[in-house]
């Protein structure tokens, strides 16, 4: 005997079939509940529930006193969201949009995140089940202005392990790490200001700074942090208000700041009234923590931000800001004015995931898995004559130079036609000096098709002429 | 026999007790796993799990090869987040922060949302359980640039019922309704621009426009929409770029736009190249839909935005924008640059809630409940000599005038001392001409203490001198 839910489904299926086969067009009246029940040999309440569900979906609609009618047919999904845009220029948003828009089945060695089964979906599932039993207030209410206290307390403890002492009033939750950086930029910058970024650096900083109408100045990144001579001259020449960088593992190079560079960099910042945003999005990927500028500085001119989109989930978004209390107060007002409450449920899920006893083991396994994937990717790129700029100790990325000055944008376009999203170097480079570089995400480099397609693209794309 | 989970809990409890009683201070070494297991008569794996959980919370930490140690004690929760700020000036953020910061037990007749048990927590619970069984990709991946197609399809059908025809490429998901309006402001406005708002209007528009460094000009709101004579002169005098208003039920007055006003207003906008944002946050509260400017205009110069924070959940945030395709394309790039992917999980939950067969019944019950609460609140305010500006047909709000020109900010401060958050009129008024008005949220007006406290405050607060 079929269960009630499958009887409801069969009524739904029957109605849908008549609509999709055009037996019932828009405006057609459905059989009455009683007639339908008799015809299909089910109870009246089964038909009521089926009609209610179809009405909730908008497939049919009730008219007072006269039953249910078929509404207009749904528009087909737009082609635009099923196909990558081959014609888009390689601008700072190129990699984001290609990675986000690719249809299932595309390979994404250039994207910035891990495959979904590498993230902490088990922790999320436990969190979702726990939240399903939580008080109504946790499910439907706005968060307080600073965000969920329990999560902020967890973040406080995590920061302390990196030597960053933050009081509870120095921690503000944001919708995401990107939102955190954006809020700070809105607070600190005005159009025309100068901002230093690493060259190369995370392409979305460039897109964001463009949205703020400020001038981004690239400072070459070395194996131990930004080139301090260039940094010092840029301070002199441009009097920048802000420097945005990664804490720990640098995106896209995988390099880390050395203690010496950190101390000297902060000294330069102090003498020039420069403010620094340190984006700690890859914190849990490090094998041993690099020095944090926020720890040296005591959250005076350094603002520490982060999120868990890379380690736990990018679907349940939650970021944070640790900064001076007076800045947090101003940022809180700005957050309320421009996004109001914040995702309280996402903060609860993040708090559950971070304090779950499985999370430490999960990240341990991820780090091991990444080490293997890194070795594998290094072997594959070297076979194609591609040279890693650095062999990083941890993290997702390999920053690599293509052989013989090949143009990475052209190679990326060729690969995209074959269903492989590659991240061309100039998307990361403010100075556009990384035309022959690409960023690989080792967690997305398992499929042998990647190397076939890339090899073919390298062969097709003639080397640029040399001097 | 106790279950494993309660044995784990008893180990956790034992460790916590020793820490809180200061038997084990920061830095103390915990008994080894084996010793603890023997002492407490539990298995080694039980102690391992308990220690892991405490370590995940940061209460204790593992040191390689030498066991577990007590970390520093957690800082107490900041007082600032447990107490309302009595000294804060009544600015556009006053009501938000007071409402969001009040400790449990405070009454909030002035806040903008319903009590948690009036929202759709049952639908959320069903959604959470369903998502707990979903594919990993739904739990951890970024959304596509426009956001979850299934939800956008649902929004498309909902818009169509209001006469708004939007293709799938004309619908963009945002983090919240506030985020939607903010994105549009970033796209359209530059510092120094003029923007028309209703006077009174939702206070957070004022805070947001301040953040955009634009000049907000208030146009008096009548029982059928903005005062069109003042609107026309404001167009002449200030050449505003944008007008922000509510679709359907107006906040704070509960008035609705008449068909005649809608048509004439749109005519004025067309002749002046004015763009209009219509914020449809209270759509599901209407008994019968008021005319939508976006429907008349065909999404040419009108941008339609909305969210479900008021009807379903403010904790799982999700907003949307319907606009011209070229504007959606630009807004999508701006969204990626400033907040990247968006809360995919929240979009899934909203899609499940909106297509749940119980949602229609839920909102029907809410509308009935609000009608009763409105009657009750009207009786109570009238007993205190408070006069409603309008008796709205639907929605949460009553916009009311205090007797004898009493100052609502002073009354609000007195009430706050007694644990009652009142929303003073000038928080909503660009012209500051609503000093003797307050906004009541009828769903938050059940407790008789509200009327006692308010009555006392009105008696204490001497009437202002009259001319």
Automatic annotation (TrEMBL), chains A, B:
InterPro entries according to UniProt: Aminotransferase_I/II_large, HTH_trans_reg/aminotransferase, PyrdxlP-dep_Trfase, PyrdxlP-dep_Trfase_major, PyrdxlP-dep_Trfase_small, Tscrpt_reg_HTH_GntR, WH-like_DNA-bd_sf, WH_DNA-bd_sf
SMART domains, per database record: HTH_GNTR
HTH gntR-type domain location: 5-73
Annotated keywords: Aminotransferase, DNA-binding, Pyridoxal phosphate, Transcription, Transcription regulation, Transferase
Transport is among the record's keywords: no
Domain of life the protein comes from: Bacteria
Gene Ontology molecular function, alphabetical: DNA binding; DNA-binding transcription factor activity; pyridoxal phosphate binding; transaminase activity
SUPFAM superfamilies listed in its UniProt record: PLP-dependent transferases, Winged helix' DNA-binding domain
Classification via CDD domains: AAT_like, WHTH_GntR
Database matches in Gene3D superfamilies: Aspartate Aminotransferase, domain 1, Type I PLP-dependent aspartate aminotransferase-like (Major domain), Winged helix-like DNA-binding domain superfamily/Winged helix DNA-binding domain
Keyword Oxidoreductase belongs to the record: no
Extent of the signal sequence: none
Annotated family: In the C-terminal section; belongs to the class-I pyridoxal-phosphate-dependent aminotransferase family.
PANTHER family: HTH-TYPE TRANSCRIPTIONAL REGULATORY PROTEIN GABR (PTHR46577), TRANSCRIPTIONAL REGULATORY PROTEIN (PTHR46577:SF2)
Protein name: PLP-dependent aminotransferase family protein
Annotated source species: Stenotrophomonas lactitubi
């Amino acid at each position: 005997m079929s269960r009630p839910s499958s009887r409801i489904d069969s009524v739904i299926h029957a109605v849908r079939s008549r609509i999709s086969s055009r037996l019932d067009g828009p405006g057609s009246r459905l059989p009455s509940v009683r007639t339908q029940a008799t015809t299909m040999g089910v109870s009246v309440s089964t038909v009521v529930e089926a009609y209610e569900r179809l009405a909730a979906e908008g497939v049919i609609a009730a008219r007072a006193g006269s039953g249910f009618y078929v509404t207009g047919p749904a528009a087909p999904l737009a082609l635009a969201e099923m196909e990558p845009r081959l014609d888009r220029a390689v601008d700072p948003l190129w990699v984001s949009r290609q990675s986000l828009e690719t249809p299932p089945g595309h390979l994404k060695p250039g994207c910035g995140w891990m495959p979904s089964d590498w993230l902490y979906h088990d922790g999320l599932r436990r969190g979702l089940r726990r939240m399903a039993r939580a008080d109504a207030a946790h499910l439907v209410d706005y968060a307080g202005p600073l965000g969920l206290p329990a999560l902020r307390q967890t973040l406080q403890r995590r920061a302390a392990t990196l030597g960053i002492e933050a009081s509870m009033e120095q921690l503000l939750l944001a919708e995401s790490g990107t939102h955190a950086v954006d809020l700070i930029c809105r607070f600190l910058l005005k159009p025309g200001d100068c901002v230093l970024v690493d060259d190369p650096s995370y392409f979305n900083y460039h897109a964001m700074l463009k949205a703020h109408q400020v001038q981004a100045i690239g400072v070459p990144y070395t194996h131990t942090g930004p080139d301090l001579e260039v940094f010092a001259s840029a301070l002199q020449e441009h009097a920048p208000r802000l420097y945005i960088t990664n804490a720990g593992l640098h995106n896209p190079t995988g390099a880390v700041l050395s203690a010496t560079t950190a101390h000297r960099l902060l000294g330069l910042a102090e003498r020039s009234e420069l403010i620094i945003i340190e984006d700690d999005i890859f914190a849990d990927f490090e094998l041993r923590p690099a020095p944090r500028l926020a720890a040296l500085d005591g959250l005076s001119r350094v603002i520490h931000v982060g999120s868990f989109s890379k380690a736990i989930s990018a679907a349940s978004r939650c970021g944070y800001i640790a900064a001076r209390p007076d800045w947090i107060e101003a940022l809180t007002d700005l957050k309320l004015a421009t996004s109001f409450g914040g995702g309280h449920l996402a903060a609860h899920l993040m708090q559950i995931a971070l304090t779950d006893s499985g999370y430490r083991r999960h990240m341990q396994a991820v780090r091991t898995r990444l080490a293997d994937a890194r070795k594998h990717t290094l072997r594959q790129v070297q076979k194609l004559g591609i040279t890693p700029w650095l062999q990083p100790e941890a993290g997702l990325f390999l920053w690599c130079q293509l052989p013989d000055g090949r143009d990475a944008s052209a190679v990326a376009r060729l690969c995209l036609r074959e269903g492989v999203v590659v991240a061309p170097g100039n998307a990361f480079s403010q100075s556009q000096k990384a035309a022959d570089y690409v960023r690989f995400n080792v967690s997305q480099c398992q499929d042998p098709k990647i190397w076939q397609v890339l090899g073919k693209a390298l062969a097709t794309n003639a080397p640029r002429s040399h001097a």
